[in-house]
Write a structure and sequence with these properties.
With 165 residues, this protein is mainly alpha-helical. The chain is 68% helix and 5% strand. The chain has 8 helices and 2 strands. It has a two-stranded antiparallel sheet. Strand 1 and strand 2 form a beta hairpin. Helix 1 runs parallel beside helix 3, helix 2 crosses helix 3 and helix 7 crosses helix 8. The radius of gyration is 17 Å and the shape is elongated.
Length: 165
Amino acid sequence: MELICGTSTYQLDTIIDEYSTLLYHVAMVRMQNKEDAEDIVQDAFLRLLQQIQKGKTFESKEHLKAWLLTVVTNRGKSILTLAWNKRTQGLDSAMKIAAPEKDTDYAYEYVMRLPEKYRVAIDLFYYQELTTEQIAQIMKTKPTTVRSYLHRGRQKLKEMMEVDA
């Protein structure tokens, strides 16, 4: 199955190979649960397949990436707001999430302890290297709000690290 991004055409399996790790990482940051993260990534690619079958095209690979990240973020939000998730606690809630390979310091452990909005914003900005405008689209908020999340998140990280030092 082919996907059109701007003037280029890509095979669906190439897109899956290219973006699955990124999407899984973002889903893990939001969900902190391996099974839910895997389901969310699978849902994102199924939705992409449905869109391809409907003839959807993307302006560029960046547009496709932003679309996939938005699907993952929104699906995670939907799962977190289910009544079932509000009444239960996962078995692996105490498990740590592996830090990205390119992050070798201990700071990522602190990022994972932040409240969700700060955690997602910081991960997308520093680890996925998205702009505040791109993050705002994904989080469905304003860029100034994202910058506030980043500022407050950094403050909370500093406080947590000072307490543990």
